[in-house]
Amino acid sequence: MSRSTLINWLLVLAVLVIAVVPLVFIGSETEFGGADGVAVEQIEADNPGYEPWFTPLFEPEAETASTLFALQAAIGAGFLGYLFGTLNTRRRLATPRPAPQPDDPT
Amino acid sequence: MHIAEGYLPPLHAAAWTVVAAPFVVHGARAVVRQVREDPDTKLLLGAAGAFTFVLSALKIPSVTGSSSHPTGTGLGAILFRPPVMALLGTIVLLFQALLIAHGGITTLGANAFSMAIVGPWVAYGVYRLAGRLGGGLSVGVFLAASLADLATYSTTSVQLALAYPDATSGVLGSVVKFGAIFSITQIPLAVCEGLLTVLIVRLLIKVSPDELRRLGVLRTPAPAQQEV
């Protein structure tokens, strides 16, 4: 494995460690609810009786929402993969071949 | 950093929309110009958009006990300058508002301002500054992406504080309160975002060095292979 590849994997590993450590040390009983929701609770605690003046036109249930979140990540990741493949192929085809072509007219 | 639908008073919601709209329109024109002037960079532009799409779907738990997500806007700001991300970031926010009920239409202006405008500009500023101070590409990218992430969440805290000043300590006290919810949670996630952005820049350098050279991200002349 080249040094560059090793560094890339170490970057991935570091991200995983940062994402998993809270789960291990704080414990899986914590719900890890979204910070967005915590802010909503704070607003409601400070302003008792606050009613949002507009509600989402379409609001999926929690389970469906997590599916849609996963879908969002999947679409993005799939597209990224496609782009990397295309860029890689384009670069490979653009690189001059090592040996001269036998039927090269020049 | 999403402010939930209906949780910004109408006046605030309207004001943030008015503030954000010109940036997004300008961003749309920047995207069109970029595609027309250098069609070869279209794929990289797509990568910048897709990166934001993926990262803003990743809910990562934080040491504070709640979870949040990176923004992914630093990459595009570094590659294509911030205006492009004003459009791409807003599209991602619109998707989440309409399909996942995350964020909202009434709060789209405020959310676009924090994630698609403030974040990218902070990323760009930090990136240029780091370059001028002689930091390497990776260091610049890391600082740019992670500080952009933090700046986005801090902006959200200020936006909510302006709408809901604390009864006794006022707006400032409220900034501290919402900052404790958003910005503190975000510190480890900002580090994640910085690392992931460095990773993708390294991968892009491998597959697309010529375009990155044209965009000014890589400065070395052509075939020299360089380690980052």
Find the count of extended strands of chain A (DSSP E, 2+ residues): 0
Strand order of the largest sheet of chain B: 1-2
Q: Largest interface: which pair? A: A-B, 57 and 72 residues
Q: Write down the Rg of chain A.
A: 25 Å
End-to-end Cα distance of chain B, whole Å, is 32 Å
User: Mind telling me the CATH class of chain B?
Assistant: Mainly Alpha
Helical residues, percent of chain A: 55-70%
Q: Give the DSSP E fraction of chain B (strand runs of 2 or more residues).
A: under 5%
Count of separate DSSP helical elements of chain B:
8
Q: Mind describing the biggest β-sheet of chain B?
A: 2 strands, antiparallel
Low-confidence segments of chain B, given as residue ranges, are: none
Account of the protein in words:
Chain A: Pfam families: CbiN. Chain A: One of its GO terms (molecular function) is cobalt ion transmembrane transporter activity. Chain A: It comes from Pseudonocardia petroleophila. The complex is a heterodimer of chains A (106) and B (228). With 106 residues, chain A is an all-alpha fold. Chain A has a domain of 35 residues. Helix content of chain A is 65%, strand content 0%. Chain A contains three helices and no strands. The longest helix of chain A is centred in the last third of the chain and has 33 residues. The two termini of chain A are 40 Å apart. Chain B has 228 residues and is mainly alpha-helical. Chain B has a single domain, classed as Arp2/3 complex 21 kDa subunit ARPC3 (Orthogonal Bundle), CATH 1.10.1760.20. Chain B is built from eight helices and two strands. Chain B starts with 9 loop residues before the first helix and ends in a 14-residue tail after the last helix. Classes of the chains: A mainly alpha (106), B mainly alpha (228). At the A-B interface, helix 1, helix 2 and helix 3 of A face helix 2, strand 1, strand 2, helix 4 and helix 7 of B.
